[in-house]
Design brief:
The longest helix is centred in the last third of the chain and has 28 residues. The radius of gyration is 38 Å and the shape is elongated. Helix 7 packs parallel to helix 9. With 1051 residues, it is mainly alpha-helical.
C-alpha cells in the first residue's frame, strides 16, 4: 500500500506535467479545457490529502479559465462548460465555508442561479438546486432579516419535490428544507415554517423506509418551530422521529453518523421539554439523554465540550431542587457559543457553525464584568445589522436588557438599570405574541421593583404593580410548564410589591391581596412541592407578623406542604439537604405550636410538635410500622404493604446521588402504590387512623412511666409543656427574654468548646455558668411545677427539647440550692432521659422478641494505641458481669461484621473513637479496625428486634453534627435507638479515655444488681447511668464536663 507521501509525490508530478502542457499549448487548443479539468481533479485529490487553501484557490482559477474558454467545434456540446460551471460554483461555496469571504458566496449563488436557467439533465438540476438552497441559507446568516432568501429557498425546495428523481434525492430535498427552516428561524420569519414542514412531510411519505437523514431533518425542523411558537406537539413528534432512528441502530453502534445526530437532537429536545415543563422527570430524562449522546464524540470534539457544559448546568439545576452541595462550575467563558442551554435551541449538532448567541440568566450572573461589557457590545453590533421591525430585532432588545440588568446587579449603577428598562420597553413595543408577552411584562416589572428599592420612589413601585396586574391578566391561570412558571412568578412578584407598598402606606387591602396572591401561587398548577412550601412559609410569616385572620389556615397548609416536600426528595441525604436549606421549614412547626399555645390549645400544640420534628426518623419509622394487626385483618394488603415499605426503605437509604433519575422514577412508583394501599387499609374497620399523625390521646402514652417535658424554643414565644399520662398538658410560661437567653447560652458553650480543650479552666467556667443559668431559666420552674403536680423526687422524667435546647445538658442543670449545703443538680432530684419525639419513646416500650436465654452483651472494642483505656474497660466489664451475663468481645471489628453480630445480642457496648463530619450527619461514625467506619447510615439500615440496651463509650455519640438540624436529632445515639435498642447511653461531646473504664464499672454494677428484680434491664439503665455519674462526680472527683457528658435516651 502506498504511503500518503508517495501519493502526494505522484500528484505533484502529475500537476507539473499538466501545467507544462498548458504552458506549451495555445489557449485555442481544443483539449485545453479537458487538461484544465484533469488539473482540477488532481489538485482536488491533493487538497483532500493536505487540506490546503492553496490547492482550492488553484482549483477555482483553473475552473474559471475553463468556463471562459470559447466553445470549440470539437467539443460537440456545452456539457463540459456546464460541468465546469457547476464545479466552479461548488468550489466557491466550499472556499466561503473555509475563509468566510462574502464575495465567494455571492459568486457561487450567481452561478447556481444561472445554471438553473439552462436546460440541465435531471440529476444535475437536482444537485444544483440543493447546493443553491445551501448557499442561500449561508447568505441568510450574513444578511439577517432578508426574507427574500427564505422565499427563494422555499420555492426551490418545492421544485425538488416535483422532480421525478429517486428516493435519495427526496432525502436531500428534506435535508435542504431543514436548511430553509434554520434560515427562516434566524430571520425570525415564521410564515414559511408551516410550509416547510408541510413539504417535508409530503416528501417523507415518498421516501423509502429507513431514511434516517430525512427523519432527523424533519425532527430538527419541528424543534425549530417549537422554539418559535411554543407548540409542544412539535416537540413530542420530533422525539418520536429521533427515537425511531436511535432504536433502529445496533445498541453499541456509536460510529453511525445518523445515530449520533439523532442522539444529540434527542438530548436537545429533552432539554427543551424540561424547560417547558420544569419538572424533575423531564430534568432526569434530559440528563440521561445528554450522557447517552456524549459517547458519540471524542473529548477533543467541540460538541463534546458543549454537551458537557449543558450536562453540568442541568445537574446543578437538579442540585438546586434538593439543595445539594455541588462543586463550582465554570459557567461562563465569554464566547457566544458557550453561554448555556438556551444556545442549544439554535444549534444543529450535525451542522458546524450554526450556533447563535443566547444565554441563561444563571450563566450571565457568573460572568465577569469584562465579559458582560463584551456581550453588550456584541449585541449592539448585531442589532445594527438587523432589519428593524422583525421579531429578531426584539430578541436583541431582550438580550440587551438582560445583560444590563446583570450589570446593575454587579455594579449597583442606576444607569445600568435605566438602560435595562429602556430596552425592555422597546422590546414590549415590538412584541406581538401573547405567549411571550407575560414574561416580558414580568421582567420589566422586576426592573421597576429594583428601581423602587434603589431610589425609594413609590412611583416605580406603582409602575411595577400595574405591569404585573396586566401580566397576570394576559396569562393563563391554568398554564403549566414554562408559561405556568412565568404566571406563578408574576403572582409572587405582585405579592412582594403589594407587601412593600403596605409597609409604606399601610392600606389593609394591599395586605389582604398580597396574602391572597400567595394562596393562589400555592394552588397554581405550576411549581414543585419545595416551591409551594416556601410560599406557605412566607404566608405564615406575613400572617403572624400582621395578626392576619388567615394565620391558622396558613399554618395548616404549610404543615401539609412540609410533609409533601419531604417525600419529594428520594434519599435521606437529599431530604436532609432540603430541610437544611430552607430555614423557615425548621422553625415553622415550633412557631405553629407556639401559636396553638397562645390560643389555649395545648394538646394540639403537642400534636404539632410531634408532626413537625424529627421528620426523617418519623418517616423511616413509618416504613417499619408494625403490620401484625393488619396481617390478621387482611393478609394480602399486609404483604403488599410490607414489600413496598421494604423497597422504599432500601431506596431511601441509598447514599449519594448516583443513578438519581432511576431513584426518582422508582420512588414515585412506590409512593403511588403505597398511597393506594394506605387508602384501602384506612377503609377497613378499625384502621381509620392507620399511618396518620397520632392524636394527643395516643401521644400521652409516652408519659406512662413519668412526665415528658417539652421545651419549645421559638422566636414568637417560648413555652415549657409537661405531658402526663392521664391529664391534659400543663403549661409553664417563660420570660420574654427566654428565647434570646437560650441562644446566648448555647452559643457561649459551643464557642468555648471550639476554642478551648474540654478539661481547660475556661471551659469549666463556661459550663458551670451555663448550667447555673439553665437552672434559672428551665430547671427551677420545672421542679416547682413537678412538685406542684405531686411528682415525687427520684421519679423518672423525659426531656423532649427543641431547637438549641437539643445541645444543652438539661439533665445537669444546677447547682440547686439546698439546706444541707450539699451541691445538687437536676439529675440528683429527678432521673433524666431524653427522647427525640413522643412516638420514639412509645416505640421503645413496645413488646419485643422474648428470649429465655441468658442475657448476652456484645463488646465492640477494636484495638487502638491512642485509646489504652479500652483494654482496662473490657477487663472491668468482664469482672463486674462475671458469669451472670454472657459477653462476647469483638476486637477485629469491621462495619460488616459489627452490624451482623449486633443482631445476636440484647446488649451492646461500643468502645472506640467517635467521629463527626461537619455538614454530613449521616457520616457520623464509630472508628473500627484499620480505619473502617460504622456510620450512622450503616446503623440505620440495621433492624435489631431483640436489642434492648447499648452503651456508646465513644466521643460525640449524642452530639449534633455541625450544620445539621437540631430538631432532626441526627446523631449516633438516636440511630441506635431507631434500629432497635430501647435505651442508649451516649455522649454530648468528647470523653476522656479513662472515663469509659470507670463509668462501665459503676454502670453495669448498678444495672445488673438484684435491687430492681422484675424491671426490664433497659428500663434500669437510666437510673444506673445517673448513679454511675454520681460516683464519678463524688468518688472519682472528675471535672464537671466529664460526668455531665453522659446522657440517656429511650425507655
Amino acid at each position: 500500500m502506498k504511503s500518503p507521501q508517495d501519493s502526494i509525490t505522484q500528484l505533484d508530478g502529475r500537476i507539473m506535467k499538466l501545467r507544462h502542457w498548458l504552458s506549451s499549448h495555445p489557449f485555442s487548443h481544443p483539449e485545453r479545457r479537458l487538461c484544465l479539468l484533469d488539473l482540477v481533479t488532481v489538485r482536488t485529490k491533493r487538497r483532500n490529502l493536505l487540506n490546503t487553501n492553496e490547492d482550492l484557490d488553484n482549483v477555482i482559477l483553473h475552473l474559471t479559465e475553463a468556463v471562459l474558454l470559447p466553445l470549440h467545434p470539437l467539443d460537440g456540446t456545452d456539457l463540459d462548460v456546464i460541468s465546469c460551471l457547476v464545479l466552479l460554483a461548488k468550489a466557491l461555496l466550499l472556499r466561503f465555508l473555509t475563509t468566510k469571504q462574502p464575495g465567494d458566496l455571492e459568486s457561487s449563488i450567481q452561478y447556481f442561479r444561472h445554471l438553473l436557467n439552462l436546460d440541465l439533465p435531471l440529476g444535475v438540476r437536482k444537485d444544483v438546486t440543493v447546493d443553491l438552497v445551501k448557499a442561500l441559507g449561508r447568505h441568510a446568516e450574513l444578511e439577517a432579516g432578508n426574507i427574500t432568501h427564505s422565499t427563494e429557498m422555499l420555492v426551490l425546495c418545492r421544485e425538488l419535490l416535483t422532480l421525478d428523481s429517486p428516493g435519495g434525492h427526496l432525502v436531500d430535498a428534506i435535508v435542504t428544507l431543514k436548511d430553509v427552516a434554520i434560515a427562516t428561524s434566524r430571520e425570525s420569519w415564521e410564515e414559511p415554517l408551516d410550509q416547510v414542514i408541510e413539504y417535508m412531510r409530503e416528501a417523507m411519505e415518498m421516501c423509502p423506509s429507513g431514511s434516517h437523514r430525512a427523519a432527523i431533518a424533519l425532527a430538527r425542523t419541528l424543534t425549530i418551530r417549537f422554539v418559535e411558537t411554543n407548540s409542544i406537539g412539535d416537540l413530542r413528534e420530533a422525539m418520536v422521529l429521533v427515537d425511531k432512528v436511535i432504536t433502529s441502530q445496533p445498541l453499541g453502534d456509536v460510529q453511525n453518523p445518523d445515530k449520533c445526530d439523532a442522539l444529540s437532537l434527542a438530548a436537545e429536545i429533552s432539554m427543551l421539554q424540561f424547560e417547558e415543563y420544569q419538572n424533575l422527570q423531564n430534568l432526569e430524562e434530559a440528563i440521561r439523554r445528554i450522557r447517552t449522546s456524549l459517547v458519540c464524540y471524542t473529548l477533543s470534539d467541540n460538541r463534546h465540550r458543549i454537551l458537557t457544559e449543558y450536562l453540568a448546568n442541568l445537574t446543578e439545576k437538579r442540585s438546586s431542587y434538593f439543595h445539594l452541595t455541588m462543586p463550582p462550575q465554570s459557567a461562563c467563558s465569554g464566547t457566544s457559543h458557550e453561554m448555556g442551554p438556551s444556545a442549544l435551541q439554535r444549534m444543529d449538532m450535525s451542522d458546524r457553525g450554526s450556533v447563535e448567541w443566547d444565554a441563561t440568566k444563571d450563566i450571565q450572573r457568573a460572568c465577569s464584568l469584562t465579559t458582560i461589557d463584551q456581550q453588550i457590545h456584541h449585541l449592539r453590533e448585531l442589532l445594527s445589522g438587523n432589519v428593524t421591525g422583525t421579531s429578531g430585532h426584539a430578541k436583541y432588545f431582550c438580550a440587551l436588557a438582560d445583560w444590563y440588568s446583570t450589570r446593575f446587579n454587579r455594579t449597583d449603577d442606576i444607569t445600568d438599570l435605566e438602560k435595562s428598562i429602556e430596552w425592555r420597553q422597546m422590546q414590549l413595543a415590538s412584541t406581538s405574541r401573547d405567549s411571550f408577552l407575560q414574561g416580558h411584562l414580568t421582567e420589566l416589572a422586576f426592573d421597576f421593583l429594583q428601581a423602587s428599592r434603589r431610589n425609594h420612589r413609590i412611583s416605580f413601585l406603582e409602575k411595577s404593580i400595574s405591569l404585573l396586574r396586566y401580566a397576570i391578566k394576559v396569562g393563563d391561570v391554568g398554564a403549566q410548564g414554562t408559561q405556568g412558571a412565568v404566571h406563578r412568578k408574576a403572582l409572587q412578584m405582585l405579592h412582594l410589591c403589594l407587601f412593600r407598598r403596605w409597609m409604606l402606606i399601610r392600606h389593609r387591602e394591599d395586605l389582604d391581596e398580597a396574602i391572597l396572591l400567595l394562596q393562589t401561587s400555592i394552588d397554581h398548577e405550576s411549581g414543585n412541592p419545595p416551591d409551594k412550601l416556601e410560599d406557605a412559609c412566607n404566608w405564615v410569616y406575613l400572617a403572624r407578623r400582621t395578626a392576619h385572620p388567615s394565620l391558622s389556615t396558613a399554618y395548616q397548609i404549610a404543615m401539609s406542604w412540609m410533609q409533601r416536600s419531604l417525600v419529594f426528595a428520594p434519599t435521606l441525604h437529599t431530604k436532609h439537604a432540603h430541610l437544611t436549606a430552607i430555614q423557615q421549614v425548621n422553625k415553622m412547626p415550633l412557631a405553629y405550636a407556639s401559636y396553638r399555645v397562645e390560643t389555649g390549645r395545648l394538646e394540639q400544640a403537642v400534636e404539632t410538635l410531634e408532626q413537625g420534628r424529627a421528620l426523617l426518623w418519623s418517616e423511616m419509622r413509618g416504613l417499619r410500622t408494625s403490620i401484625d394487626r393488619l396481617s390478621v385483618a387482611n393478609p394480602a394488603l399486609a404483604t403488599k404493604l410490607a414489600i413496598i415499605n421494604r423497597d422504599l426503605e432500601t431506596l431511601t437509604m441509598r447514599g449519594g446521588v448516583d443513578m438519581f433519575g432511576q431513584l426518582l422514577k422508582k420512588q414515585r412508583t412506590l409512593l403511588d402504590g403505597r398511597d393506594v394501599l394506605t387508602s384501602q387499609i384506612q377503609a377497613l374497620p378499625g384502621f381509620e387512623n392507620f399511618l396518620k399523625t397520632p392524636p394527643f390521646d395516643t401521644l400521652r402514652a409516652a408519659a406512662e412511666r413519668g412526665p415528658v417535658i417539652i421545651v419549645n424554643h421559638c422566636e414568637w414565644r417560648s413555652d415549657i409543656l409537661i405531658v402526663l399520662h392521664h391529664s391534659p398538658p400543663f403549661l409553664i410560661t417563660t420570660p420574654e427574654d427566654f428565647y434570646n437567653r437560650a441562644n446566648e447560652l448555647v452559643d457561649r458553650l459551643l464557642d468555648t468548646r471550639k476554642k478551648h480543650r474540654l478539661e481547660s479552666l475556661q471551659y469549666q467556667r463556661t459550663l458551670l455558668s451555663v448550667l447555673k443559668q439553665l437552672y434559672e431559666l428551665v430547671g427551677q420552674p420545672v421542679i416547682s411545677k413537678l412538685r406542684e403536680l405531686n411528682i415525687p423526687e427520684q421519679s423518672r422524667v423525659w426531656w423532649c427539647p427543641t431547637s438549641v435546647f437539643c445541645s444543652l445538658p438539661l439533665h445537669a442543670m444546677g447547682p440547686i440550692p439546698s439546706q444541707d449545703k450539699v451541691k445538687k443538680y437536676f439529675s440528683d432530684v429527678y432521673i433524666s432521659s431524653y427522647t427525640p419525639t413522643l412516638s420514639a419513646l412509645i416505640k421503645s416500650r413496645e413488646p419485643g422478641v422474648q428470649t429465655s436465654d441468658l442475657p448476652s452483651l456484645l463488646v465492640i472494642a477494636p484495638p487502638d494505641k491512642s485509646l489504652p483505656g479500652v483494654k482496662e474497660e473490657i477487663g472491668v466489664i468482664k469482672q463486674v458481669l462475671g458469669s451472670s451475663i454472657r459477653n462476647s468481645i469483638l476486637e477485629e471489628a469491621t462495619s460488616d461484621n459489627a452490624a451482623k453480630t449486633l443482631r445476636h445480642h440484647r446488649f451492646a457496648h461500643i468502645a472506640c473513637h467517635g467521629v463527626l463530619e461537619a455538614g454530613k450527619p449521616f457520616d457520623a461514625s464509630f472508628m473500627l479496625q484499620d480505619h473502617d467506619r460504622l456510620t450512622l447510615l450503616n446503623i440505620v439500615r440495621s433492624q435489631l428486634p431483640a436489642a434492648e440496651f447499648a452503651l456508646l463509650s465513644a466521643c460525640h455519640t449524642a452530639e449534633l453534627t455541625e450544620g445539621s438540624i437540631p430538631d432532626e436529632a441526627l446523631h449516633l445515639t438516636a440511630a441506635m435507638q431507631y434500629c432497635g435498642f430501647r435505651s442508649v447511653v451516649g455522649t454530648m461531646w468528647a470523653m476522656a479515655d479513662t472515663d469509659g473504664r470507670d463509668l462501665a464499672g459503676y454502670f453495669y454494677k448498678f444495672m445488673f444488681s438484684s435491687e430492681d428484680q422484675g424491671v426490664p434491664y433497659y428500663e434500669r439503665s437510666a437510673k444506673a447511668l445517673r448513679d454511675a455519674a454520681q460516683k464519678l462526680r463524688r468518688e472519682k472527683r472528675v471535672g464537671l464536663e466529664r460526668w455531665v457528658n453522659f446522657v440517656h435516651y429511650g425507655a
